[in-house]
Amino acid sequence: MTSRPTEPLAQTGPDSLLGRSLSQWSFLLVFPRAILLQVAHPAVGAGVAEHSVYRTDLWQRGYRTLTHLQRLAHADPAEGERLGRELRRGHRDIHGVDSHGRPYHALRPELFLWVHATYLDSILMLWELCGRPLNADERKQLYGQWLRVGRCLGLRDEELPADLQAFTAYFTATLATLERTEPVRHLLGPALLTPPRPVAGLPLAAAGFRAFGRGLFPHLTRMTVALLPHEALTAIGLSPAHRAYAAMARGLAHTLNALPQQAWPL
Q1: Is the pLDDT of residue 80 over 90?
Q2: Which end is more exposed in the chain, N or C (fewer Cβ atoms within 10 Å of the end residue's Cβ)?
Q3: pLDDT band (50, 70, 90) for residue 48
Q4: Which domain covers residue 80, as residue numbers?
Q5: Rounded CA gap, 3 and 163, in Å?
Q6: How far apart are CA 152 and CA 135, in angstroms?
Q7: Between β-strands 103-105 and 95-97, what pairing exists: parallel, antiparallel or unpaired?
């Protein structure tokens, strides 16, 4: 990025648009979409493949990611900066070489930006699924809050898209660079059938989880694919899911939004 953000940094917190978006149960519908877009990035995918426990502890890993994301959105500026430093410390030893032989390091700004960007794009889709697309003022407000969290993550002004128009151009261009990485293949395959850790130690419960999952999880995977941008499908080499799965996502969004917004713990 070469231009400085023109949008002002907006206040985050539990009652902010960003905080409320991440506290909805319906965010769980687009969270897997964001993760899939993240790991389809060659460098991010390589880092996850080599350094993450997603193969053996997928559910707990996802929960940790989600709660950390919530805490960043709900934090005041000082707490947000502390959480950002904590996150960067946890990534400083994540480096290696991707499948093309290119070196990567998790602290490279473009990788932090891509991961952060997938959440904003997925939140915008969330409100569309809920039947209430954000208006121009709300999108501007959300973008300012997203910028603030980006600063907490250590991204500088010149590393962030100046406004939503610049963000859209950046996001669309990056979609064309995505690939079917090893984590993408795993997440689109049997990954969800690995029971959460408390269940895995109970043979009968684990067997029941797998039996239930074999019927449910393929449909959830297809729903996630149905929510991916067309450019991502082309880059990753995926066929579009049947449009019924997008309709299923909209129906689930309305159902989940009937639950209390703060029903799940931070």
Answers
A1: yes
A2: C
A3: very high
A4: 17-256
A5: 10
A6: 26
A7: antiparallel
Residue 100 lies in a domain: yes
Exposure of 136 in the CB half-sphere (CA atoms within 13 A) = 1
- pLDDT of 93 over the 80 cut: yes
By the 10 Å C-beta count (0-12 exposed, 13-18 middle, 19+ buried), 157 is classed as: middle
Kindly list the distances between the CA atom of residue 202 and the CA atoms of 33, 207, 215, 216, 226, in Å, as whole numbers in the listed order.
30, 9, 20, 21, 34
**Residue 242 included in any domain:** yes
Tokens linked to 164: 């939503």
DSSP H/E element including 94: none
- Give the count of domains, the chain: 1
Residue 56: per-residue pLDDT: 74
pLDDT above 50: residue 263 = no
CA 182 – CA 179 distance, rounded (Å): 9
Residue 130 burial (CB < 10 Å; 0-12/13-18/19+)? middle
User: Which amino acid, residue 21?
Assistant: S
Is residue 11 one of the residues assigned to a domain?
no
Over residues 23-35, the mean pLDDT reads 94
Gap between the Cα atoms of 163 and 233, Å rounded:
26
pLDDT on residue 54: 78
